[in-house]
Amino acid sequence: MDGIAGPRFDSEHLHLVQTHYKHMQALPLPELTKRDIKRFWSHVAKGNVDDCWEWSGKSGHYGRFKVNTPEGKRLVQANRISIFLATGVDDPSRDACHTCDNPPCCNPNHLWLGSRSENSQDAFDKGRMPIPVVRAKGEQNGFAKLTEKDVKAIRKVLEKSNCITQLSREYGVSVRAISLIRDGETWRHV
Length: 190
Description:
Layout: H1 11-21, H2 34-42, E1 44-45, E2 54-55, E3 64-69, E4 72-77, H3 78-87, E5 95-98, E6 111-114, H4 116-125, H5 148-160, H6 164-171, H7 175-182
Antiparallel strand pairs: 1-2, 3-4, 5-6
């Protein structure tokens, strides 16, 4: 996806997206019988090759298809089955991504396999994902009570002693604020 203009996820926001979707790790598709395949396509409203083929079966945001497995019944994303039936590729580490941006679409011509980060970046680039909130750092943040000079001075004092309470009073901030500076959780850029 190199060469696409526009903002990119920085590593911090990419980590947030990956953490958010971690619970959605896919399993390999169960073995599909001819009956399963016929039943699957009976829930897809096929149209022209360029049209979206909407899922009409059990839905969730993307459409779900129930498959019987030796372990019991399992719901699988309909678009994953569609792309598998068209390409023969089942890669649980990849997402079934939409070029049409229509989640219930099962037209294999509208689907492509991409990594979770490629799928998230595609959604972000197309305006389908909220722009991550990027807080201004340090003095640029309108709520900052300290300056970079203050933080450097605080760190210098903390090298010699652990007088957090005294520093918090002196600089008019909470004990927690001083602890976060000491532990490198805030003002890391200084």
